[in-house]
Amino acid sequence: MKSISQKKANLFLILGGIFITNAIVAELVGGKIFSLEGTLGISQFQIPLMGEKWDFNLTAGVILWPVVFITTDIINEYFGKEGVRKISLLTVILIVYVFIAVFLITLLLPADFWLDANNQDDAGNYLNISYAFNRIFRQGMWIIAGSLVAFLVGQLLDAYIFHKFRRFTGKRLLWVRATGSTLVSQFIDSFVVLFIAFYISGQMSFSVVIAIGIVNYFYKFMVAIIITPFLYLAHYLIDNYLGKELAGEMMEDAAGKSKTFF
Q1: Is there a domain that residue 229 lies in?
Q2: pLDDT tens string 95-113
Q3: Of 45, 73, 147, 262, which alpha carbon lies 20 to 30 A from 214's?
Q4: Within-domain flag for 260
Q5: The model scores a pTM over 0.85
């Protein structure tokens, strides 16, 4: 039979693995912008903002960030703000490492046979596979900086607000503190990354940044509502694994801002 410390360590390891994996992959695929309406096969929304009409053209990373949001709230629920802080800082360090590693890999001289074997696309058009590889994986430094700052600020803010809500809700109304903290933190996140990556770098005007931020936040708002049942499912599975008594003790410790969770 597993000891209490083993169960705690295993849970944090699993949650941390899910959190870090999805955050890193979301960063790697973030360079692709996709049409939500086109993907769903529906008409474009054409939302009027700042004198123009905007569609839901989003970074591919938004597909994975909801998993990070759920995991953040679960870690918060059982390990407190200290648990979120530790996993967030570790994730930032690992994201920086991944970007450095990928950048160095793009500097490697491609093999001739690899270029020849991949010199055409499916339609027979010429393809420079090395250029495509580098173009996909190299992201501007402003985008990387904006993304990392937004991620860290969003996570720490989420943890703080989550516990503010818990003071009023107690153990009840998980959806209120989880959804509420996510909506507030993602509002900040949506604008921080755009402001640093595109406004400070001079690539977009302030009005365009605001418009895109509003569209992105509206999407995140809807997703935060939709994923709420999955939060309860995760809570149910974890409580069964830990046992009601241990789960209750961990949540009380987390609510009490305990910094020792192992």
Answers
A1: yes
A2: 889 889 988 999 999 999 9
A3: 73
A4: no
A5: no
